[in-house]
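Blinded run. Sample ID left blank on purpose so nobody reads anything into the name before looking at the predicted structure. Input follows.
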Amino acid sequence: MQQDLIDFRRELHTYPELSGAEKDTEKRIINKLKEFQPTQIIASLGGHGVAAIYDSGKAGKTVLFRADTDALPIQEVNDFAHKSVYEGVSHKCGHDGHTAILVGLAKKLNQYPLKAGKVILLFQPAEEIGIGAKAVLEDEKFKEIQPDYAFALHNVPGFPKGQIVCRKGNFTPAAISLVIKMQGKQAHAAQQENGINPDRAIASIMHQIQQLHHPDLGSKDFIKFTTIYTRIGSKDYGISAGDGELHYTLRCWNKEKLDQAKQQLTDLIRKTCHENKLGFTIDWIYYFAANINDSYAVDCIEKAAKANQFDYLDKPLPFQWGEDYGLFTENISGAMFGLGSGEDSPALHHDNYDFPDEIIPYGVDTFYSIAQIILG
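Blinded prediction complete.
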């Protein structure tokens, strides 16, 4: 185990920063990368992103490896020495570990340089809110890099530590969040007929959404709605509610199905609100593109795992969470794989989660072997 990578991971965990605010994280990454002498470091990429380039100086493909760097607005409940120093902010998705793995890859590329092509190490900001990948891909500095392949990993609780988990095709779905706001008219609670209460419309919409729900993971028509929050009126018992809102997440296997579901949902909301004489707005937020793994890229991941004698699982069904990396596989041939973080690990986004340091070498070695396979 490389103690310097553990120390760096724990430093990031101690000083987490939210999506779009990773200013000090960017500085820490750059300072650490300088120890391992990349050919070039590109800062302020898509916000507070960083790219480190290792150029062999010889012709060959360009392979990108991506880690995410942002933390979550979750209060740390752990009491270990490297706990978050910031109230209400902590690394509960393992992005500190992903970043440490990519720094470990920088260290290995410095020690054992590749003989052809280029490797790009991308430290991406703002993954959790679904805007970081887009910002990076649209950055003129990134357009000059033009990778041929892109790879990423995400630690996955519930799987044995160090297990490499992958599949061809869908790895994660297209996902989006939505906020529906309805405006009626308040009235005295004793005379609700004088107002327009959104309660019936909200009940109807919630019921109709369940009719669209098709959560069979094995079906190409997979559609999953999750209720996040609902509100009608206020806690004023003399007032019949005059407004309300509903918040959902929506997931489908691809953008086409997602767009169809969005249109169906928009139509039923419009019809229901019109029938109930309600004004309404729909805001679509936090879009995550479907992560579609390229067959050749998955073959490289499997070969890399087996070259290191790591346990490899060909996952029969995709994961259900959204992942900002999907926008990379939409634009560049590549794949994401899961890295088992322990069958007894707390779930991602749980307040007592902590990335297990012992799986760092599995990520580093798998990434390095992928680069060897593609670049020779």
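Unblinding after everyone has recorded impressions. The longest helix spans residues 255-275.
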